[in-house]
Design goal:
Blueprint: E1 8-9, E2 17-20, E3 24-27, E4 39-42, E5 48-50, E6 57-60, E7 69-70
Parallel strand pairs: 1-3, 2-6
Antiparallel strand pairs: 2-7, 3-4, 5-6
């Protein structure tokens, strides 16, 4: 499977806030091998959530599409085989 069913985001850049266009997603912390346990986060009716592992603040942005982020480099991309 080449695409994630649930979007995955990382914070290699160390930004304080990542805006995302998904209400359900996975935070991996940083790209491997420096990742933390991949944790599923669900915003539910909220617009913000903090990852319990890396303390990244994720904020829902309705103008972004599902799986998109601001900054865009925070989206986990599958490596080409």
């Amino acid at each position: 499977m080449s695409d994630h069913v649930v979007p995955h985001f990382h914070n290699d850049a160390g930004v304080p806030i990542i805006e995302i266009g998904s209400k359900e997603f996975m935070c991996v912390g940083a790209n491997p091998p420096f990742d933390h346990p991949h944790v599923f986060l669900d915003l539910g009716n909220d617009s913000e959530i903090i990852c319990p592992y890396c303390s990244t603040l994720y904020r829902y942005a309705a103008d972004l599409g599902a799986g998109q982020a601001r900054p865009p480099e925070c989206v986990v991309k599958d490596k080409a085989a």
